[in-house]
Specification:
The complex is a heterodimer of chains A (about 180) and B (about 500). Chain A is mainly α and about 180 residues long. Chain A is built from 6 helices and no strands. Chain B is mainly alpha-helical and about 500 residues long. Chain B contains 19 helices and 2 strands. In chain B, strands 1-2 form a two-stranded antiparallel sheet. The radius of gyration of chain B is 22 Å and the shape is globular. In chain B, about 55% of the residues are buried. Classes of the chains: A mainly alpha (about 180), B mainly alpha (about 500). At the A-B interface, α2, α3, α4, α5 and α6 of A face α7, α8, α15, α16 and α17 of B.
């Protein structure tokens, strides 16, 4: 029962995708118009710093309404063509593409978030290992090879940018524990 | 001629040749790796030039510029990620051609036409610099605004299936560039008290995030069995294309080279704009536009010859007027000033020897780039054999380093991730990303010149329409939008009429 409901939701998103997208854009461009009113002005002139964002907001809102109408028509046409839901089976865990994409996004967030604390070198080794593992089919994973690759690549990049191009990659605060 | 010989004699020392060779290799590598651009290579190597003499320092900078512009095609072809913004359009046909097992041919065409583009741009620079500089000087705020709006409309109409989505995407790009200090009065906009946003978003994290980070996420979502990279036919005959194909490309190449040089001359619009424009024009004027995007060489020739031709073009206003043609020439302008020179109308007269040394260095660098890419091509093709599940995390790390390296702040890395997520979400709903990039790159020009123009015309927009050049470009832009919106309706009516006659 539940799977049939998610199947229907999937079809709805596919058919009315443009309508939902248009609605999201409309909210966004209306917000642009509203927040543009808060911009400070040097002179009370028509062609001020507010002018251009307001133009963007107004034109964007009009185009979004057009997209909503277009999306509604396309959705209705698709409704008539394919009634019912999509109950195609979906893979579980990391074998499912959507799960892999979400885990990758989370991994990137953690990578950036901990970069300044843990430092570039350690964080990059960890990121590389986890990211390669996530993107590799279970049967093709070779952990030792992945670890060696992650460590060597991270060290080369760190040395090259740090010592040859003098880029101050974050060292992290972990080293301070060891009195550095 | 004597001046040219003297130019070559100034640069053809073993040390200068070595500097140029190293510069070209570094430039190509930076251009090829998404997240690293020729601009960044110049930025990172600029401190090295402070201690050098004028000629060797310019040999290094020009080799990085030319190598970086040419290198972008390698990753555009091999992994469908433009190595730099100047090779966005190269992915449209380069990647499908590589996917069909002809990566060598795609690269051969790209390298060869990049070289022709370089030479064409340099020749234009040498022979037409003074009069062309004067023409660019004629362009006022009205003309700049009109050309930018025309470019934006063209890109919105051509990328993706729906012009409405294209235009919305373009507006998103134009909005993103509004974040930060406003032009003219400098008040901060849409920063919500977050000071890291005061300076706005840097160009590199936005561009790289949209194309590279979203590519990794798209890859993660793909079915695992689709991961394997197609095996490449590495047997190359010459440059990979025939004499017949070369002859067939002459009109396309010439048109794109002229377009690239002209766009390069316009300040603020460079390789990032002209490769997409040249692709669009090549598609529109082709006898077989439906084949574009399937992997035909016309779609590689147009962007690659035009982006390299834009180098010579961008140098015209920089050397004659002291106005940079793009972000890279802005950096070069800084380097010239550090050496104690001040480009401007008198610069040509006073430093003619130095100018011809620059021309000679540009020609030598173009030739070196062909050799480096030709002899390194097998290695570049092998890059495809590195599985993408290993290559893409490496690219991600380099993107991070590139974004962080701009001004050593983690904020730029966060904006890389943010625009990656935005690009991923929008492309899921089939919103084209190229107009966002174009909006972002041209946004500052559009707003600045629109506001300046309206202030000059005391709020009367008709001044944009009554001047011949700006009026023509704006009318063309409006016609393009109206035509694209009406096209489905006209098609529907035609189909209905056909169905009726069939009955």
């Amino acid at each position: 029962m539940q799977s049939s409901q998610t199947g229907k939701a999937r079809v709805l998103i596919r058919q009315y995708g443009d309508l939902m997208l248009g609605a999201a854009f409309l909210v966004f461009f209306l917000a642009v118009i509203i927040f543009a009113r808060d911009i400070r002005l040097l002179l009370d002139d028509a062609v001020s710093a507010r002018f251009w964002p307001t133009v963007i907001g107004v034109v964007g809102s009009l185009l979004s309404v057009y997209l909503i109408a277009q999306g509604y028509r396309a959705g209705r046409a698709a409704d008539a063509a394919t009634p019912g839901g999509d109950d195609a089976p979906r893979a579980k865990g990391l074998e499912n593409g959507n799960v892999r994409a979400v885990v990758t996004i989370l991994l990137l967030f953690v990578y950036m978030l901990l970069m300044e604390q843990v430092g570039f070198l350690l964080m990059t080794i960890l990121y590389m290992f986890l990211q390669i593992t996530i993107l590799t089919e279970r049967s093709k994973r070779r952990h030792i090879k992945t670890i060696i690759l992650s460590v060597v690549f991270s060290l080369v990049i760190y040395y090259f940018f740090r010592n040859l191009l003098f880029l101050m990659l974050p060292d992290g605060r972990l080293w301070s524990i060891f009195g550095r | 001629m004597e001046l040219m010989v003297s130019g070559f004699s100034q640069i053809l020392s073993p040390l200068n040749l070595l500097i140029m060779l190293v510069g070209v290799v570094v430039g190509v590598v930076f251009g090829a790796i998404p997240g690293l651009t020729g601009l960044m290579a110049i930025g990172l190597c600029l401190p090295f030039t402070f201690g050098m003499d004028m000629i060797p320092s310019f040999c290094l900078l020009m080799s990085l510029y030319i190598g970086g512009m040419s290198g972008g095609l390698i990753s555009a072809v091999l992994i469908n990620i433009p190595g730099s913004p100047a090779s966005v359009a190269t992915t449209f046909d380069g990647a499908p051609l590589a996917r069909s097992g002809q990566g060598g041919k795609a690269l051969g065409v790209g390298v060869f036409y990049s070289f022709l583009g370089n030479v064409f741009g340099i020749l234009v620079l040498m022979f037409l610099a003074p009069p062309l500089g004067a023409l660019a000087l004629e362009f006022g705020v009205f003309e700049y605004f009109a050309v930018a709006i025309f470019s934006l409309t063209l890109v919105s109409a051509l990328s993706g299936d729906s012009i409405v989505k294209g235009l919305i995407a373009c507006l998103i790009g134009l909005f993103v560039v509004c974040i930060g200090a406003a032009p003219i009065d400098g008040f901060s906009r849409f920063t919500f008290g977050f000071h890291a946003l005061d300076g706005g978003f840097e160009q590199i994290p936005v561009l790289v995030g949209m194309f590279a980070v979203s590519e990794i996420l798209k890859f993660a979502r793909e079915d695992q069995h689709k991961m394997d990279v197609v095996s490449q036919d590495v047997r190359l005959k010459g440059l990979g294309f025939t004499w017949k194909e070369f002859k067939g490309q002459i009109p396309n190449a010439l048109r794109s080279a002229i377009l690239g040089t002209f766009i390069g001359i316009l300040p603020g619009i460079g390789g990032a704009t002209c490769n997409i424009l040249a692709y669009g024009v090549a598609k529109k004027s082709s006898k077989y536009p439906e084949k574009f995007g399937t992997g035909i060489i016309d779609g590689i020739v147009a962007p690659e010859i035009s982006n390299n031709a834009s180098i010579g073009g961008a140098m015209v206003p920089m050397l004659t007027l002291g106005i940079p043609g793009d972000a890279t020439t802005a950096l070069l302008l800084g380097a010239i000033t550090i050496q104690g020179l001040h480009p401007g109308p008198l610069f040509f007269q006073d430093n003619i020897g130095f100018i011809y040394a620059i021309f000679a260095a540009m020609l030598v660098c173009s030739l070196l780039t062909v050799f480096v890419q030709f002899f390194g091509m097998r290695g570049f093709i092998r890059m495809l054999e590195i599985p993408r599940n290993i290559l893409l995390p490496m690219v991600m790390v380099l993107c991070f380093v590139g974004a962080f390296g701009i001004s050593n702040r983690i904020f730029d890395a966060w904006s890389l991730l943010f625009f990656g997520l935005l690009g991923f979400a929008l492309s899921h709903f089939k919103v084209p990303l190229t107009p966002i990039i174009m909006g972002f790159v041209l946004g500052p020009i559009v707003e600045l010149y629109l506001r300046r123009g309206l202030i000059l015309a005391k709020g009367d927009f008709m001044r944009f329409m009554t001047r011949p050049i700006s009026g023509t470009f704006i009318t063309l832009a409006i016609l393009m939008v109206v035509y694209s919106l009406l096209k489905p309706l006209i098609q529907k009516r035609k189909n209905a009429a056909k169905a009726k006659t069939a009955q």
